[in-house]
């Protein structure tokens, strides 16, 4: 069973040591970049994805300045733990966490991914995210989950 834990001074080094496979590097920014970015994002949460006491992934999500809705900026599972169904469970944890935090005015969770990342597309589709037709941000397809 997976759970989320906030990134702190106790676990940030573990977070930045997580890596995706070499063929996936082009799909996601490093966790070090995400943690640096957190300094400039209000209302965002960096969390480790844990299986028992081992961090196996990382996520960054919060309220986007532009549309004031929730966005998942990062979602990754370490290369050693991929292919075990953890992505879907991790996304469910993030959705549930956002549901507990959100206000009534928040209606959606948005994310984006490289159009060539077929695995991400399949997983997000299965979790209820729907591509926003014609909406591309920085060469990435936008997909949205509606509460």
UniProtKB/TrEMBL annotation:
Keywords: Transferase. InterPro entries: Acyl_CoA_acyltransferase, GNAT_dom, MshD_Acetyltransferase. It comes from the Bacteria. The keyword Transferase applies. Residues 2-147 form the N-acetyltransferase domain. One of its GO terms (molecular function) is acyltransferase activity, transferring groups other than amino-acyl groups. Pfam families: Acetyltransf_1 (PF00583). This is Diamine N-acetyltransferase. It comes from Falsibacillus pallidus.
